[in-house]
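Let us work through a complete example step by step.
Step 1: write down the sequence.
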Amino acid sequence: MNTSVTVAVAAIAESFGASIALVAATVVLLNVAMAFTMPLAGAASARFGPRRLISVTGMLVLAASVVLSLAPSLTILAIARVAQGVALAAVVPVSVQAAGHLLHGDAQAKALGWWGASNGIGLAFAPLIGGAIVDLAGWRWVTVPSCLLGIGLVITATRAFPAGFRRDHGIPLLGVGVVALLTGTTMTTLTALSAGAWPVAVVAGACCAISVVAAARLSRPGGTLAGPRRWLHDRAARRSSLGATLQMVANGLVQVAVPAWLIVEGGFGAGAAAATVMAMTLTMAALGPITGRRPSVPYDRRLGRGLLGCAAGLAGLAGATAAGSWWPAIPALMVLGLGAGWLLSPSLTAFSRTEAGANAVGMSTFNVLRLGSFGVGGLLGGTAVDAGRTGAAFAAVAALCGLVGAWIGLGNRTHRTEWIAAPDGAEGGPR
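Step 2: predict the structure and record it as C-alpha cells.
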C-alpha cells in the first residue's frame, strides 16, 4: 500500500503542478501518522476489541483510498494519506499480538513465517503493480489495491477474531501518549531530514527531546512507565529488536540505493531497476515459510547467521558498485535476501514471545522501530547516491552487520562452552 503509491509520485506532481519533493513528503505522511498512532493501537484494542478495531480499520482504509483517488488538491491527498496511516497503524501490532494469544507453538511460528513471506512479496510486487496501473490507467487508479485491502481487513476481522476477545495492555493512557509522542516525533524528524525540511526537523527534534525527558521521568519507580522499563533489561527483547533494526536498515538502504544507482549509473529504466531488486525481496519472501516451519531453531543462531548473510550480500553490492557492473548485484541481492529472510519473521516471532511482545504497546513500539530503521536506511541510501558514495554506504552497513553477527556468534559459542564445561568433575551446567 505504501510503495504502490510511492511510484506514482512523479505523476501526482505533474497532475497538481507541484514539485516532486513536496509530493514525496506528502506521500510519506502515511508513515508519520503510523508512528504517532501505532502505540495507541493497544489502548484502542483493549477498549473496543481487535475484531471491532480491525473492522473499523478496514473501512477507514477503503474510505481514505477512495478520497485519495478523487482528491481535487494536494491538501486533500495529504489528509487521505494521514487517514490511511492512522488506520494501518493497528494492523500489524494488534494482529501479531492476537496471534500470540490465539495460536501456540508451531502454529504461531508458521503464521508469522507466512507473514514474513507476504511482507516480502508485497515489497517485491507492489512497485511493479503500482507502476503498471499508473502507466495504463493513471495515478488515480493506483489505490485499487488498497481498496481491496480495506475490504479484506473487514472480512478477515469478522472471521479470524473471536467476538469477545480483547487484551488489556496494562499501561495508563498518559504513558501510552508519551510513547506515541516519542515515536511520532522521531519519525517526523527522520522524514524531515530526508526531505531537507530543516525547520521542521529542528522543531520535531526538540519535541522528541522533550518526549525523551518525559518518558525518562515516567520510567522512575512508581511512574506509569515503570513496568515497561523492565523490557529494556530483557535479553530476548533486546536481541530481537537488534536483528529487526539492522535487517530493516539494510532493506531500506537497498530499496532506495540499488534502483537509484542502476538508473543513474547503469542507464536502467525504472521497471528494470525495480525488477532487479526483486532478486532480494523474492528470496526473502521464499524464506518466510521455511523459517516458520523450524520454530525449534534458537533465535540467537538465526540472528548471527542472518546478520552475516546480510553482511555478505551488502559487501557484494559494494563490490558491484566499485566495479561499475550491474550483473554481480543479482547474486549479491539473493544472498542479502537469504540473510534478511533469516531475520524478518524470526525477529517478530522472538519478540512476540517476550513480555514486551505480549503487550500491544510493546509490539507497537517494536514495529515503529522497524519502520524508523527502514527510513534510516533509505535516508542513507539517497544521500550516498547523491554524493556518489553508494559503495561506501553498502560497505559501512556490511561492516556493521558483520561485526555484530560475529559478536553474536562468538557469544553463542562461549555460552555453549560454559554449559558443557564442568569443573572438578562436577555435573555441567550454565554459569
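Step 3: interpret the result. The longest helix spans residues 106-137.
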